[in-house]
Amino acid sequence: MTTAKSAYWQKIVDQAKDKDGNQRPFFSMAPMEAVTDTIFRRVVAQAGGPDVYYTEFTNAASMVHPEAKFSVQGRLAVAPGEQMPIAQIWGSKPEAIAGAAKVLPGLGYEAVDLNMGCPDGTVVKNDAGSDLIRHPDRAAALIAAAKESGLPVSVKTRLGFYKTDEYHDWLEMLFNQDIQVLTIHLRTRKEMSKVDAHFELIDDIVAMRDRLAPDTLLQINGDIKDYEHGLQLAKDHPGVDGIMIGRGVLNNPYAFESEVVDHTLAESISLLELQLDLFDEVNQTANKKNFEALKRYFKIYLRGFSHAAKLRQLLMETHTTAEVRALLEEHVGDLLAVK
Ligand SMILES: Cc1cc2nc3c(=O)[nH]c(=O)nc-3n(C[C@H](O)[C@H](O)[C@H](O)COP(=O)(O)O)c2cc1C
């Protein structure tokens, strides 16, 4: 099936060049619920971000429901000047997906991604996320519905629901839907994140794409640590167009940097300070954030030095960004001295 590449994706591909001007795969930060909001995306951008960002997944039904609309606004909030992410939405009803996708251009979004891989029990019970792997007809209807928005449509999914073998039929169906990008998290729903990603299947999936939908971009995901690792995988598996990294960024906020640099603790602390500032900024808008949710980030920035655990423990007892700043102020001299 011939897919006309959208101008949006063509630009991303064209701009993905290494420092010598050679073509390289595009890199993206994976959509992560309660993580990849406007705050964290901007912190990662400061640390040397990817080519493409995704929002947290957002419930299409809520986006079109008059009373629920406000509950999802924070997930789709984008700061002025911030690089526009791709909106990831999830749902099971074509009307909701079509309605939600049509809302997106008005918010400034230029592309939409459909979640067809979420393993979460509640999402699966709602006939969405990875449940769509068991219901390919419904999945196809959702893709068609998203296209009504006129936005370029991509899909993020897993290999199968129960067994890796399911990818033969499931991905064949998806490659026949004329989508812009297929992002494959190289595990089944059943495997959750408990086994290693199936890198051994990449070449076969590339061959399927080449045969069925040569113009659909193929992005791989799962266990990819950083830029260098992604580049190596793309080299080992020619035909891979994109590399998506999720938890790698939670281990190393500099995961997308094209040159490995030994970052100082002072630099890491300044990323945390940026996160605190952006948290305060967002909390002055209607999209209030929960302070407790900020705590999961402390370990990203404060690790790998003596006393890190002790300081993190103290930070876990804070209730405001002011308290966090005060603790950093109190300890930072000692921290920098011991490093
Ligand atoms: C905290 C967390 C939240 C996630 N939320 C989403 C989500 O909203 N949408 C989605 O498609 N995948 C979500 N995922 C899955 C990731 O996008 C990614 O597919 C998975 O973590 C494997 O990639 P990795 O090994 O690079 O992390 C989430 C993963 C984590 C760890």
From TrEMBL:
PROSITE patterns on file: UPF0034 (PS01136)
InterPro entries on file: Aldolase_TIM (IPR013785), DUS-like_FMN-bd (IPR035587), DUS_fam (IPR001269), tRNA-dHydroUridine_Synthase_C (IPR024036), tRNA_hU_synthase_CS (IPR018517)
Binding-site residues for FMN, renumbered to this chain: 88, 156, 185, 246-247
Domain of life assignment: Bacteria
Enzyme class, UniProt record, top EC level: oxidoreductase
Annotated ranges, domain DUS-like FMN-binding: 29-332
Gene Ontology molecular function: any one: flavin adenine dinucleotide binding
Active-site residues, as the UniProt record annotates them: 118
Alphabetical list of Gene3D superfamilies matching this protein: Aldolase class I, Putative flavin oxidoreducatase, domain 2
Protein keywords: Flavoprotein, FMN, NADP, Nucleotide-binding, Oxidoreductase, RNA-binding, tRNA processing, tRNA-binding
Cofactor: FMN
Catalytic activity: a 5,6-dihydrouridine in tRNA + NAD(+) = a uridine in tRNA + NADH + H(+); a 5,6-dihydrouridine in tRNA + NADP(+) = a uridine in tRNA + NADPH + H(+)
EC number(s) stated in the UniProt entry for this protein: 1.3.1.-
Recorded family membership: Belongs to the dus family.
Role noted for this protein: Catalyzes the synthesis of 5,6-dihydrouridine (D), a modified base found in the D-loop of most tRNAs, via the reduction of the C5-C6 double bond in target uridines.
Protein name: tRNA-dihydrouridine synthase
Source organism: Fructobacillus pseudoficulneus
